[in-house]
């Protein structure tokens, strides 16, 4: 494959991926809630003037949660496509896909606490 074909192919793939990200943000309520929380946390980051390392941790947490939520949505869509009717196994697949997001959300809440609790306590000192 020539270099120009490779680059055009990668650009097209990036276009499809961006389209997918826009679909997720436009149609998925859980992603919209997470995007709203991400905006609030970004405002909090500027308000408390958090350090570069704290920005990195916060940005990674936001990306991990929203990325994994996208994968959860993908698992749900595949499950509904291959078996639209009620099935115990489909329920199990959807539950564990959602569980993966919860694990990341718990870890991110801990990271958020480690970052912001000292700043919030400093407000009262
Ligand atoms: N076809 C099915 N068969 C068995 N249980 C299901 C089925 N569809 C959904 N469930 C159960 O309902 C739960 C919620 O599923 P649903 O597809 O509504 O996703 P959700 O959690 O509302 O996420 P989202 O808001 O992203 O759609 C699942 O975790 C599962 O326990």
Automatic annotation (TrEMBL):
GO cellular component: plasma membrane
Protein's cellular compartments: Cell membrane
Membrane-spanning parts: 29-49, 96-121
Pfam families: DAGK_prokar (PF01219)
Highest taxon of source: Bacteria
Active site residues per record: 69 (proton acceptor)
Sorted UniProt keywords: ATP-binding, Cell membrane, Kinase, Lipid biosynthesis, Lipid metabolism, Magnesium, Membrane, Metal-binding, Nucleotide-binding, Phospholipid biosynthesis, Phospholipid metabolism, Transferase, Transmembrane, Transmembrane helix
Residues that bind a divalent metal cation: 28, 76
UniProt key word Metal-binding: yes
InterPro entries per record: DAGK, DAGK_sf, UDPK
Cofactor comment text: Mn(2+), Zn(2+), Cd(2+) and Co(2+) support activity to lesser extents.
Positions of ATP binding: 16, 28, 76, 94-95
GO terms assigned for molecular function: ATP binding; kinase activity; metal ion binding
Keyword presence, Cell membrane: yes
Cofactor: Mg(2+)
GO biological process: phospholipid biosynthetic process
Membrane protein topology class: Multi-pass membrane protein
Binding positions for substrate per the UniProt entry: 69
Family: Belongs to the bacterial diacylglycerol kinase family.
Stated name of the protein: Diacylglycerol kinase (ATP)
